[in-house]
TrEMBL record:
Pfam family, one: PadR
Protein name per the record: PadR family transcriptional regulator
PANTHER family in alphabetical order: DNA-BINDING PROTEIN YIZB-RELATED, PADR-FAMILY TRANSCRIPTIONAL REGULATOR
InterPro entries: Metal_resp_DNA-bind_regulator (IPR052509), Tscrpt_reg_PadR_N (IPR005149), WH-like_DNA-bd_sf (IPR036388), WH_DNA-bd_sf (IPR036390)
Organism: Clostridium bornimense
Residue ranges of every copy of the Transcription regulator PadR N-terminal domain listed in the record: 15-85
Superkingdom of the organism of origin: Bacteria
């Protein structure tokens, strides 16, 4: 299981990517994160992120009928969300590269462990 502190900074970008792949609702986002290997992430963790994304105009929502129960809010990316996702991916690649180099010991000034 990935420690929550490590997840904290990445979840927003990961949620944007899930919404980018397909219009979806909060519970489904939680399920998809679990299927991708993020572990069990509750809707209680996801909802504040979704609210922040809406406040920052990165996602929009549409109420739709549900086959089981009340209407659901389905989320879509806005142009701000697409820009934020592009930036997240760029930042992730840079961070991923730096961490991988560090862990591999690619820096000639460091002793390999």
């Amino acid at each position: 299981m990935i420690p929550s502190q490590m997840l904290k900074g990445m979840l927003e970008g990961c949620i944007l990517e899930i919404i980018n792949k397909q219009e979806t609702y909060a519970y489904e986002i939680s399920e998809k994160l679990s299927k991708y290997g993020f572990g069990e992430i509750s809707e209680g963790t996801i909802y504040p992120i979704i609210l922040r994304l809406q406040k920052n105009e990165m996602i929009s929502s549409t109420l739709r009928d549900s086959n089981s129960g009340p209407k659901r809010k389905y989320y879509n990316l806005t142009s701000n969300g697409i820009e934020a996702l592009i930036q997240f991916k760029s930042n992730w690649r840079e961070l991923n590269n730096a961490v991988n180099q560090l862990l591999k010991g690619d820096n000639n000034n460091e002793k390999a462990m």
